[in-house]
Specification:
Blueprint (H helix, E strand, L loop, with lengths): L2 H4 L6 E4 L19 H11 L6 H16 L10 H4 L6 H8 L2 E2 L7 E2 L3 H14 L3 H15 L7 H5 L1 E4 L7 E7 H6 L2 H19 L15 H7 L9 H14 L2 H9 L1 H4 L5 H11 L3 H4 L2 H9 L4 H15 L9 H8 L8 H21 L4 H4 L3 H17 L1 H13 L7 H13 L4 H13 L6 H9 L1 H6 L1 H12 L4 H17 L4 H12 L5 H17 L1 H5 L17 H15 L9 H15 L4 H19 E3 L22 H16 L3 H15 L10 E2 L1 H19 E2 L5 E2 L2 E6 L20 E2 L1 H6 L12 H15 L9 H4 L1 E5 L7 H6 L3 H25 L5 H27 L27 H9 L50 H6 L1 E2 L13 E2 L1 H19 L13 H4 L1 H32 L12 H20 L11 H10 L6 H4 L4 H14 L11 H5 L6 H12 L14 H15 L4 H14 L21 H20 L6 H20 L3 H29 L4 H27 L3 H4 L2 H21 L77 H4 L1
Parallel strand pairs: 1-5, 3-4, 11-12, 13-14
Antiparallel strand pairs: 2-3, 4-5, 6-7, 8-11, 9-10, 10-12
Helix pairs in contact: 2-3, 3-6, 5-7, 7-10, 10-11, 10-12, 17-19, 18-19, 19-22, 20-23, 22-23, 23-24, 24-26, 28-29, 29-31, 30-31, 31-33, 33-34, 33-35, 34-35, 35-36, 35-37, 36-38, 37-40, 38-40, 40-43, 43-44, 47-50, 49-50, 49-51, 51-53, 55-56, 56-58, 57-59, 58-59, 58-60, 59-60, 59-61, 60-61, 60-63
Length: about 1450
């Protein structure tokens, strides 16, 4: 644009900032020299001293620069020739000053701004009529500032400086109007014009813009001109702006607000905010983005900020605050940190939590949070992070607040803040980790908090994911199961949320699998990896090569860990056919299992078997089509008939594995057991495919033929080792409906006795393979025939080859006549028979054919009878007899006799020539037979109703399918079924058997209580407890019906005996079975609802269904809409009604121990009623012993939990009156008849614990109330009376320990209460100290007595007790001295006495303390181990601490074992 006028070559336009740099043009030779000193001095003289600071500065600045840099007109261009003629005096002045008016969109200056100001000043000062000229200039300026003028935008925007002699033309940021304001005599007039024009533009009905080529809104430009006048004209400007704002349009108001920071003086900011509050009554209008940004930069008073915070809180919690505005509102709130006071920071944290929690509630549907702008969220927490960095007080307050929040108040926002705190200061990471760890242990935080974080703070979580990953990595190593499970579940959730960290998660878990120091950690990491593979197969498949190094660690894993690891590796190597396989991993896995199979080490070979089974399963799972195949029943002749592919590879691997382990009975049995269990797995909710149906057909034929050839016999009777064998217990029989069926099936039998007495050479024909192989047969048959076992149902009721005396009534006498080895063989036959019955009953229990169900029930009755017959045989057997193993994963005590080795060629031929079996002669349909059950023969043996099985009775566990018998079978209240009832009903014996099995499985799944020999066994209810809980759901209603039936029977019998619980009719055999079944039903429900996963929201629906099942069926529809807590309340009320039917204390244990939704008072009353009753054993005697004491201890805890001071006082008064009777032999308390002197410490310990626990809870709320300490000392003296009346070492230790805890709490929290009362009521303080003195005096005697008779457990407390009382004495003395009462206190020595008051002569001397007392504590005994009171009483030592005593070392170990 300028080249057109200047004709200069390559002169770029250079924009500079006049405030930072200034280009001074070269002066012409004719420039007049001016003395700077004289001119500046003269200028200063002309400026009155009364001018304000800003105005004076502008005047001086203008005068000095004008004098210093003045130029002559001769050096400038002839402007008149380059510019148009002026229209008025205003334009003439500008042209004479060197301004070109019509050159482009900006004014072109012939010199810099300082020179322009100087020229303007000279023009006016040299004019004759100065005042008239200013008025004329003002009129011209007013016209030029009119919105319709072409000059208005040019005057308000930057100028172009084209000074003569300069090399460059540059753009100046200062406007021409700013030059006017620099001249003191022109300033007021210009401000007046400017404010008038601002008012005109702001009140216009439309937005007015300049008339330049690139027009700009005029109002912001005009407001900007006021930025240098905020101090000199602050009152005038604010007055005019306030009036303008009240009449301005909405857009103009926003422009004024946007420029408020620069146009208003800081002292006017509060008034401006008040103006905004008046104009914008609606918070939504007030907190426009422009307003919020302006408010963040204003200097506001505390009062104004407080009002503003209330408006912000109202708007942010209203649900109408946009996501883009919230970060700036938070930034505005953070301005309170400038106050830097504890109260202001506390209010800020409270406001922040209220805002975020309300937004979570408003966004509960997830839509708003899901679509939340990432930039806004990061900006929001960026402001919070800056606040935490800048304010140490804010950081520490947030940290303390997060640690002290209640469980309900801790939200996902607090978790994110804790991550921010670690990010800001990593030095506090351990402290913050401990905050999280403690909250997780207390279950204040569950994995659902990550779901909330995912919903609300996904983007900020992704930014700090590395911090969270490090925390979870440490939590995985925690021994506390709750913490480690939280970390495990968190990894699973994070794996789904962020694809970017999936590799990092896998690497961290692989790192944990290599941790040899913690087997539990390795197991958990492997299980989590397998879970991730099942639920996110595609994602894990992309990282398949990361898993290869795990193969190097296989040899260090246990068998359970090996199973999980190989499950993972094999299913990644051979994934769903839709996913790409990892060839490298396939080769490595195949090579490893081959090496393991040929290894001579037993454990490694078992690892190879487990690996092969997992590899077979992974290879064979290629079927995605769930539809039935028409040719699924067609047999496959051999492996070569299978189509090429993974199914054929799996079949070849089975043959290869069998040939490798065919000489080992244990290995073969383990192989079949593992194969059956893996094929029987349920994969609901995972991406696993079904097994290849052709492979299933081939495998089913092979194992069925092998079972038939090895264990099904038609041989005639014979005698082996002097034991006559015979076909027995055949319940298969033809009936009229299938008379055409071949009768040969009645002649088959399971060859148990012959294989025990005369084992065969081949391992596959060993008796130990019988149950595992049949289990494999039934699993494959179910896969092949859609859960139907009709093709092999003859095996359920077929005969068993047994000794001829097996069911004789005099079998014990026959057994006694055998030699020791014969007895062992006979017992082995009994055990193998039981194991066979158990596996066959489990297999057919889920079959719904009526005839099959009758045989199942008949077999179940026979099984129970045989198990009862084994008990006396075991009592007569040699002590070295061990039951034959039923599982082969761990090394059983009973070693299986190694079979004769079969040559490699023979084994290969045996496995390669398996053809299609011909089973037509041996098997037929189950409908061909009817049931024929012989009469039950009983043996008079003592029945143990407490424990169903002894330590030597180790049988094969039943499968989960027997639940169907509980669901579908009718029940009668008889323990000996009538002949016509056998096969049709469940009796008390059958019900007890089924309930006992379910309870054992629940204990293993829920409480992790299982036999150590089964630690590595692969049980579905252990590997996937959630599936087992779901399986139990259908039977809950039926078990509840049985419970009601049993309760009615108990109530009826109690009515008959007039509720005399000692009546002998209540201890008859049948009634004992009723009581036992009743207790098992209650225990089943208690264990079921004690499952830890119920707290997971994903199980809420299942929990709702479970609770609904316990309600009457007629009310199900009405109660469907009830919430879980409401249903739980109804369930609890229902169980309360069963109280009168409880006749065995063991039935109450779980009812009282883990209430989830029960009201505390109702539970306390329930436990109280149960404790005040007599409990009897099944034999009719009073119940006692270790197990009974465990149950009583649970009831005591439930009875005393959260009891009030009044109830404790009442109970102590009652016990004080009765406890003396305990000194009489075999006498019990009248109120609590189950407590005698031997187990009275259980009740006494509960009283001590609840006293300290209730005190600890109350001192955290209000410790300054003296009546709290007075009531506690009164209770303590009540305990003292009991201790003195019932002299028991255990009670002594309990009383000393809890008294010490009380004294520590008194020192820590109670001294302020004593200080507050010492002047107001000194007599009350005296009474308190006298009561306390009774306790300390007894403690002194107890310590002296214990030291004299060497009671080590109590002696170990003496140092800690000495230090505590010593501190208390001097604190009390100082308190009295400070209040001029020191004369009421003195110290002295007292004679050491024992508990009976007799003097103890000892050279030791010590101190004493207390008002008017001379107590003494024995000197430290350095010969004993001194321990700090660190007892795991759970609820007593939470808040008690003291300083360590000088010169003594103390162990941190628990002192419970030393006390008792």
């Amino acid at each position: 644009m300028y080249k057109r006028f200047k004709k200069r070559t390559q002169k770029p336009l250079n924009r500079i900032d006049e405030n930072t740099t200034m280009k001074v043009p070269r002066l012409a030779e004719t420039t007049t020299n001016v003395s700077v000193e004289s001119t500046s001095a003269e200028s200063e003289e002309n400026i009155p001293a009364s001018q304000e600071h800003t105005q004076r500065f502008l005047s001086q600045h203008s005068a000095i620069l004008a004098a210093t840099l003045g130029r002559t007109q001769s050096s400038s261009r002839n402007i008149a020739t380059l510019s148009r003629q002026p229209n008025n005096f205003f334009e003439l002045v500008l042209i004479r000053a060197g301004v070109q008016l019509d050159q482009g969109d900006s004014l072109v200056l012939s010199c810099d701004h300082v020179s322009i100001v100087s020229k303007l000043r000279d023009i006016f000062t040299s004019a004759s009529s100065y005042t008239d000229k200013m008025e004329t200039f003002k009129s011209g300026l007013n016209a030029a500032m009119s919105p319709s003028s072409k000059l208005v935008q040019k005057l308000l925007t930057g100028c172009t400086v084209d000074a003569a002699g300069e090399e460059q033309i540059y753009q100046s940021q200062n406007s021409m109007f700013m030059n006017f304001l620099m001249i003191d005599f022109m300033r007021d007039s210009c401000v007046e014009v400017l404010l008038n024009k601002i008012e005109e533009v702001a009140t216009a009905d439309r937005v007015l813009s300049g008339r330049a080529a690139m027009s700009m809104p005029l109002l912001p430009l005009m407001l900007t001109q006021l930025r240098y006048l905020t101090a000199s004209h602050k009152v005038e400007i604010y007055g005019r702006i306030e009036g303008i704002f009240n009449r301005a349009t909405e857009s103009a108001k926003l422009d004024i607000i946007a420029n408020a920071e620069v146009i208003l003086d800081a002292s006017m900011h509060d008034e401006f905010v008040e103006l905004l509050n008046i104009n914008y009554s609606s918070t939504e209008e007030l907190f426009h983005m422009t307003t919020v940004q302006t408010l963040s930069n204003l200097s506001l008073s505390d009062r104004t900020q407080a009002k503003l915070r209330l408006r912000i809180l109202e708007f942010a919690t209203s649900g109408h605050c946009p996501d883009t505005t919230l970060p700036h509102l938070i930034r505005l709130l953070l301005n309170i940190l400038k106050m830097d006071t504890d109260d202001s920071v506390r209010d800020l944290i409270s406001s922040l939590r209220e805002i975020f929690n309300s937004r979570h509630t408003a966004q509960s549907d997830g839509k708003s949070a899901t679509n939340e702008n990432k930039k806004s969220q990061l900006e929001l927490f960026g402001f919070l992070e800056l606040g935490l960095i800048r304010s140490k007080r804010f950081y520490q307050a947030f940290q303390r607040s997060s640690a002290s929040l209640s469980a309900e108040e801790f939200t996902s926002f607090d978790l994110i803040v804790l991550l921010l705190l670690i990010h800001v200061n990593e030095d506090n990471s351990l402290y913050i980790e401990n905050i999280l760890r403690r909250r997780i242990k207390l279950e204040h935080i569950t994995v659902m908090i990550l779901e909330e974080v995912k919903l609300h703070y996904r983007h900020i979580l992704e930014q700090h994911i590395s911090t969270l990953m490090n925390i979870l990595h440490d939590f995985m190593r925690e021994k506390n199961r709750t913490v480690s499970d939280f970390a495990k579940s968190s990894y699973s959730i994070l794996f789904k949320i962020f694809n970017s960290i999936q590799k990092n998660i896998l690497k961290k878990l692989l790192e944990l699998t290599c941790d040899k120091s913690s087997p539990h950690l390795t197991t958990m990491a492997l299980e989590l990896l397998r879970e991730l593979q099942r639920k996110s197969a595609k994602d894990v498949q992309n990282c398949a090569t990361l898993l290869i190094p795990m193969l190097d660690r296989i040899s260090d894993l246990t068998l359970t860990q090996t199973r999980v690891a190989m499950d993972l590796l094999c299913h990644v190597a051979f994934p769903d056919p839709k996913l790409s396989a990892c060839l490298q991993l396939q080769e490595q896995v195949d090579m490893v299992v081959k090496k393991q199979l040929i290894n001579s080490t037993d454990n490694i070979k078992k690892q190879g078997i487990i690996g092969c089974v997992q590899l077979i399963d992974a290879m064979a799972r290629i079927e995605n089509d769930a539809a039935e195949h028409d040719d699924s029943l067609r047999s496959v002749e051999n492996v070569d008939s299978l189509p090429d592919g993974r199914g054929k590879m799996a079949a070849n691997l089975i043959i290869r594995t069998e040939s490798s382990i065919g000489n080992s009975v244990e290995s073969l049995a383990l192989f079949y057991e593992e194969l059956a269990t893996v094929f029987n797995q349920r994969n609901e909710g995972t991406s696993a495919c079904d097994l290849d149906y052709r492979f299933i057909a081939w495998a089913c034929d092979v194992v069925t033929f092998r079972f038939q050839a090895s264990f099904v016999t038609e041989d005639v009777q014979e005698t082996i080792k002097g034991i006559k064998l015979d076909y027995q217990m055949n319940i298969n029989e033809l009936d009229d409906t299938n008379a055409n069926t071949e009768s040969d099936v009645l002649n088959i039998g399971i060859n148990i006795s012959k294989l025990v007495l005369s084992p065969k050479a081949k391992a596959c024909e060993s008796i130990y393979v019988l149950a595992p192989l049949f289990n494999c047969v039934r699993v494959l048959y179910k896969h092949r025939h859609q859960d139907s076992l009709e093709g092999i149902n003859a095996l359920l009721g077929c005969a068993i080859v047994l000794p001829s005396f097996f069911e004789d009534e005099n079998y014990l006498a026959v057994f006694d006549n055998f030699e020791a080895e014969q007895q062992k063989d006979v017992l082995s036959i009994y055990f193998h028979t039981v194991n066979w019955m158990r596996v066959s009953i489990s297999a057919f229990a889920s079959q719904r054919d009526p005839a099959t169900r009758r045989r199942v029930l008949s077999r179940l009755g026979e099984l129970i009878r045989i198990e009862q017959r084994i008990k006396p045989l075991l009592a007569k057997a040699h002590a070295d007899f061990v039951a034959p193993p039923y599982q082969f994963l761990t090394n059983a005590k009973h070693s299986v006799v190694n079979q004769k080795r079969v040559g490699a060629k023979a084994a290969a031929k045996f496995n390669a020539t398996v053809t299609e079996p011909d089973l037509t002669g041996n098997q037929t349909s189950i409908v061909d037979f009817t049931i024929k059950v012989g009469a039950c023969k009983t043996v008079k043996t003592k029945i143990d109703f407490e424990q169903m099985y002894g330590p030597r009775e180790r049988y094969r566990p039943m499968e989960v399918e027997i639940i169907m018998l509980l669901v579908e079978q009718k029940f009668v209240l008889n323990h000996q079924l009538e002949k016509e009832q056998v096969g049709e009903y469940l009796g008390l014996l059958e019900l007890r058997f089924l309930l006992e099995d379910m309870v054992q499985k629940l204990e293993a799944a829920v409480l992790r209580q299982q036999d150590s020999s089964d630690a590595d066994s692969f049980r579905p209810h252990l590997t996937k407890p959630e599936d087992f809980i779901c399986d139990l759901l259908p039977c809950l209603h039926e078990v509840n019906n049985h419970l009601i039936t049993l309760a009615e029977a108990i109530d009826k019998e109690l009515t008959n005996v007039n509720h005399v619980y000692s009546n002998l009719d209540l201890f008859k055999e049948q009634f004992n079975y009723i009581k036992s079944c009743f207790g098992l039903c209650v225990r089943l429900f208690a264990l079921y609802f004690a499952w830890s996963e119920w707290t997971d929201k994903s199980q809420a629906e299942l929990l709702h269904k479970s609770l609904l099942k316990l309600q009457p069926k007629a009310q199900w529809k009405r109660l469907e809409k009830q919430t879980v807590p409401q249903l739980a309340t109804l369930t609890f009320q229902y169980f309360l009604k069963l109280l009168r039917s409880l006749l065995k204390v063991g039935s109450t244990q779980n009812d009282a121990s883990q209430p989830r939704f029960q009201q505390d008072e109702e539970l306390r009353l329930l436990c109280g009623k149960l404790l005040r009753r007599k409990w009897f054993h099944y034999s009719g005697s009073l119940d006692k012993g270790g197990q009974c004491n465990i149950y009583l201890d649970e009831l005591v805890k439930g009875f005393l939990k959260k009891s009030t001071t009044e109830s404790q006082t009442e109970l102590l008064s009652e016990l004080v009156k009765q406890c003396s009777i305990l000194n009489t032999k075999d006498k019990a308390l009248a109120s609590f008849p189950n407590f005698k002197k031997a187990n009275f410490p259980l009740l006494f310990r509960g009283l001590c614990e609840v006293l300290i626990h209730s005190l600890s809870g109350q001192v955290s709320v209000d410790s300054r109330r003296l009546n709290l300490w007075e009531s506690t000392v009164e209770l303590l003296n009540g305990l003292l009376i009991i201790v003195q009346q019932v002299e028991q070492p255990r009670n002594f230790g309990l009383f000393l320990k809890h008294s010490l805890l009380f004294l520590k709490l008194l020192l820590q929290h109670g001294m302020p209460a004593l200080e507050s009362i010492v002047r107001d009521d000194p007599e009350r303080l005296t009474r308190f100290l006298h009561e306390l003195q009774k306790v300390t005096r007894f403690l002194h005697q107890l310590c002296c007595h214990s030291k004299s008779i060497k009671i080590t457990a109590i002696i170990s407390y003496i140092p800690s007790l000495r230090e505590t009382i010593e501190t208390l004495v001097f604190r009390v003395k100082a308190l009295l001295a400070a209040n001029n009462c020191h004369s009421a206190f003195h110290m002295g020595n007292m004679i050491n006495r024992d508990l009976h008051g007799d003097s103890i002569i000892t050279p030791s001397s010590s101190f004493a303390g207390g008002e008017n007392s001379d107590e003494e504590i024995p000197a430290d005994d350095t010969s004993v181990d001194e321990t700090v009171l660190g007892d795991v009483m759970g609820m007593t030592t939470a808040s008690v601490s003291t300083r360590p005593s000088d010169g003594s070392r103390r162990s941190k170990s628990s002192s419970r074992s030393k006390c008792f």
